[in-house]
Structure formats: C-alpha cells, structure tokens
Amino acid sequence: MSKLTLNNILLAALLLLGVSNAMADDEKLRPFVLASKGTETVAEKTGQAKAALIAGGFTVAGEYSPYADANILIVTNDDLKKNAADSEHGGFGAIQRVAITKAKDEVQVSYTNPIYISNVYRMKSDLIGVSAGLATALGRIEEFGAKGMTAKQARKYHYMMGMEYFDEPDVLAEYASYEEAVQAVDAKLSANQNGISKVYRVDVPGKKESVFGVALKGATEDDKYMDDRFIMSEIDFRDINSTAHLPYEVLVSGNKVYALYARFRIAISFPDLSMMGKNSFMNIMKSPDAIRDALKQAVQK
Structure pTM? Predict the structure, then answer.
C-alpha cells in the first residue's frame, strides 16, 4: 500500500475520531485533549489507561503522582522517537503525558495534544499519527486548555515580549561528553535529593540525546515556588484539570544539559493565564527562577 493511501486512510480515521486536520492554516490548536470522564477511581482508570496504551503500541516510560487524586503516565513510541531524532532538541517532544485526575465527583483522563506539542517544540512532523493512536487508545471528547492558536502561531510562541522562545533553552550544565553527561544526570536524579527525583528517561535512537522527567517537591516553605503541587494549586483551577502539564523535564543533548525556561514551559500549557489577579502568573512569579535553580543544582557536577 502506498504512503499516500496510508495517509488518506489515517486522515479519514482522524476525522471520524474528531481530530481536526492540523494542517489547515486557521485550525486552532490547544494544549490538552480530554479523553474521558467517569466514576471509577484514579487507580482503576490508571490501570485501564495503561492497558489500552500498551495495546495501542505505546510504551509507558514512567509514572508520577504529584499529589493526591492525580496520576500521570509518560508514554512514548517509535513515531515519537523518530520525530525527536529528526528535530533540533526534539527530545523534549519524545514523550506524551497522560493524566488521570479526580475533580470533584468525576475522574478525568486527559493527555497532551501531540499536534500542539509538535508545533510549540518546532518539530519536523506534526505527529498526527500519534494523535490518532492516543485517541484510539483513550478516547477523545475535546481539546482544552486555551482559546487556541494556529500551528504558525504555536511555532513562534512566547508568552510576552522579553520572555523566552523554544529555541532559547537554558544550559544547566556541561560535561566532557554525552556519555558522561547522561550517566551523571541519571545518577543525580535517581538519588532523589533536595526534593528532586527522576520520573523517567527516554533515549532518542541514533542521536546523542536523552530526556528525563523530573519531579519537583519542595520540602519547606522556602522551597514552595519550585514545588509541582504548589504551582498547580495556583494555576490549574478550571473545571477540566491540566494535570498533564507535569512533570518538568531536562534534556541531555550532546555534552550539555538543557531545560526550557519555565516562563516558556509553563506558558505553553497555560497560554491564556492572566498576568495578574487571582490564579495568575503573578502568584507564581518566583517559580521560574526557583525551578531553574533547583534543576541546575540537581544536574551540575
């Protein structure tokens, strides 16, 4: 069967599933997809989601419960890894995150929108096949998390003037080689020190690049601005939760260790969040520097 025929079949399947053709110039993309809502427990829905994802060809690379009634599965597959290998700093997009969250009397299953992620991370492929795979495995009710932006807007996105873009990551550390860097970062994050711990590691095939998921838990009141639970308590306040924003990540690429600036990394999940007022960026104003300092301390020699 020709590639063109396969693409046509895939597009038809996506439309039946309610996944829009992201190639349209005016198509609005949003950060997350709500897959389902139900009355099962978080544990039950987590087990069901794991089984469905594995059956759908995904690998569960890690699992993270940042606070009560919330669990996050980090998944990858061959398409995600290939796209990461073909894209500059593509390791940031080598995974997708699936969240199971209890909100009031319902349990919500949601996940990061691969097409949105591929564009804000300026990746080569739009990951429409990955989007179809997640929709088939988990379901698809609606996209959420913002008013939306076009693919063109997403590829140029930054929150506001003076704030960082995707292609301006922070260099946290530098080692003599990729091999030294990835071994050191893995060991340091696995040591679970100062509230910082490893959630997952995914290596990009054929490329000296690895992405690590990082749990951030402040131990004291002074540490709260780097704490995942504190940050989400301030900005994740809508009826449909954006739990799949977590966890944060660091990228080993070549001999350097990178992180996306929090002013970009948080904003791509919450692009419509107001700058001031209740549930605003002002409430976590100290978090970008706190996250940067915590990650740098965790991965430096």
Answer: 0.91
